[in-house]
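User: Hand in any protein.

Assistant:
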Amino acid sequence: MRISTQMMYQQNMRGITDSQSKWMGYGEQMSTGQRVNRPSDDPIAASQAVVLSQAQSQNSQFTLARSFATQKASLEDSVLSQVTTSISAVQEKIIYAGNGTLNDDDRMSLAADLKGLRDQLMNLANSTDGNGRFIFAGYKTETPAFDSTTGDYLGGNDPIYQQVDSARNMMISHTGKQVFESVTSNADEMPGGGYGETNIFKTLDSVISALKLPVDGDATAAQTQADALKAAGVSVKNTQNNILTVVADIGSKLNELDSLDSLGKDRSLSQTQQMSDLIDVDWNAAISSYTMQQAALQASYKAFSDMQGMSLFQLNR
């Protein structure tokens, strides 16, 4: 086989180029802190890193979704805490109104008190979040949940749901119908059977009207008023129990969101470790390889430099 000076030159140049490429590759690893900077560095690790990166992104999205869900549920819980206080005050007024020693003026005063409590409850039922959305209106967030005059429900019938984890779609906000117009399965029945009026605002409107009627000296009117107060007492109690059930449901969901957050954090740490194992550089190996390759490259430069001034005749001496 005939060996030419050009062939030797090309072989030495290829050796230097390859050595330089490896040296620069180790330098890039040390610069970026990653062993895999492009798919060709490690095709299998690179493909696994893409899948893992998607999982990390999804986990981050669920973390953000849980934050939104927690804020919404916490706001509802805060409002319902005030609602519970107002309902308790209503219950006290209705019980006191049944006192036989009261006269028409006293009952008229109680009617005014109940009207004030009814307005408080209506204001709470039509509460909005920081963006002006009505929190008890379901998906019809731009519409007030209740008509302030008639007490009719105006919101949507479907509560708001939020995907808070890969396998968990959670209801994060109750509708006004579920809160102020419903009863529990073990609700008390009216004296004549059934649950009567379940809308708390219409119940209050009825009892306020009954208390405004003069009944002193009128046994029939007094009995009608007493029946109205009794029915209102049952209705308000059922509403209170229903709201407490809703509050308990919100508390359960907030606890679950906390648990899912803890799980999400653990998952994030695990994914970060997996990603590090796949693509992060082994500093000891990288520094060692970089130093060794640098020495090899310098040796290649030296050998090439020495051979530049030599011919085949000189090599055969």
Strands lie at 160-165, 168-173. The chain has a mean pLDDT of 83. The radius of gyration is 39 Å. Residues 284-317 form one domain.
